[in-house]
């Protein structure tokens, strides 16, 4: 498994996958991040396998996101931007599912990692 640093993980963890073309924004606002965090189940039971799957999916999702942002920063029209966003969104969903997680589970784990120190410590030990 490729190692990812926790710093990178937690820096971009607010950029969870969704089926909407929200990647044009460079990240969630503080209010959106807090709203997402409030939706986290208080006692989410995450297995080590799910954490490994999450890390693999995260790496793929982040690469897709970075590529889309690079393409969106070019001189493009709105129609092309929407197409790039839609393609990236679909690729992110596929990356998460290919890693063995549902998008919902991926988002729950991402939110849990933001709020649960013990879960972050477990993730660090798996790296």
Distance between the termini: 8 Å
Order of SSEs, N→C? HHHHHH
Summarize the biggest pleated sheet.
none
Which blocks of ≥5 consecutive residues have pLDDT under 50?
A: 1-31, 33-41
Please state the oligomeric state of the protein chains shown: single chain
Number of strands: 0
- Percent helix, as a range, is 55-70%
Please tally the helical runs, counting DSSP H or I stretches of 4 or more residues: 6
Walk me through what this model shows.
The protein is mainly alpha-helical and 127 residues long. Helix content is 67%, strand content 0%. It has helices at residues 6-12, 30-38, 48-72, 78-98, 103-115, 117-126. The chain is elongated, with a radius of gyration of 15 Å.
Keywords:
127 residues, mainly alpha, 67% helix, disordered N terminus
List the helices and strands and how they pair.
Blueprint: H1 6-12, H2 30-38, H3 48-72, H4 78-98, H5 103-115, H6 117-126
Helix pairs in contact: 3-4
Short note summarizing the structure:
By secondary structure, this protein is mainly alpha-helical.
């Amino acid at each position: 498994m490729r190692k990812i640093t926790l710093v990178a993980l937690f820096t971009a963890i607010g950029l969870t996958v969704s089926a909407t073309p929200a990647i044009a924004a460079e990240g969630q606002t503080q209010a959106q991040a807090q709203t997402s965090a409030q939706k986290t189940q208080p006692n989410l039971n995450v297995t080590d396998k799910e954490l490994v799957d999450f890390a693999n999916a995260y790496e793929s999702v982040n690469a897709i996101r970075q590529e889309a942002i690079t393409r969106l920063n070019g001189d493009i029209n709105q129609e092309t931007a929407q197409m790039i966003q839609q393609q990236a969104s679909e690729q992110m969903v596929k990356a998460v599912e290919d890693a063995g997680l549902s998008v919902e589970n991926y988002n729950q784990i991402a939110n849990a990692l933001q709020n649960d120190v013990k879960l972050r410590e477990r993730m660090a030990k798996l790296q």
